[in-house]
């Protein structure tokens, strides 16, 4: 088994613009993804929906000083709104699983570094 | 726009995602073995601080270089690379539960020493979802 993180990206503020029916479809897509992994015995290690970036805080070091600021680190129109950390057999399965997630999202599939041997 | 009240010191536990954003590929490209070792030691110090200060780690991962990323776009097409067209990407993350948001930010300052931006985002609670 390999381990992949799915980063779910969408346009900022999109959620509020969806109709209740469209929001229901988003939830239904997550449930289809859960069912797909459960039926095959693939482990979902963790996952979470994230608040949109107006509620973000960014910590960075500038010239040796710690700087804490409101808002996201990168100013883009597309933001990460959730993630899944899952065990899957290979990249083909990861792409199949990612395609089940809400079609409004771009799903970035990232293999996880295995540190167990280091 | 006013900033919402964020101090969670006296509130119940909340979950946060700590996104490590920057030149994620440098760990495999430009960083020397010594720099990588020092970097992992910094992450070890961060993990120790979380444990010692009562912040519970629920999940997290170190992600492989962005050249290994694939993106399934809205509509279903698959492309190579991350979805955002920027030089900075998520290289890893922690999923943490805490009662003290300000102290969590203080711990995140340890990770920021490595030059990345550390973006802290609150996880949406079940009761906050619009149904």
From TrEMBL, chain B:
- Could you tell me which InterPro entries the record lists for this protein? Dimeric_a/b-barrel (IPR011008), YCII (IPR005545)
Instruction: Give the signal sequence positions.
Output: none
Q: Which SUPFAM superfamilies match?
A: Dimeric alpha+beta barrel
YCII-related domain location, by residue?
Answer: 27-124
Q: Which domain of life is it from?
A: Bacteria
The family note in this entry says:
Belongs to the YciI family.
Q: What is this protein called?
A: YCII-related domain-containing protein
Q: Which organism is it from?
A: Nostocoides vanveenii
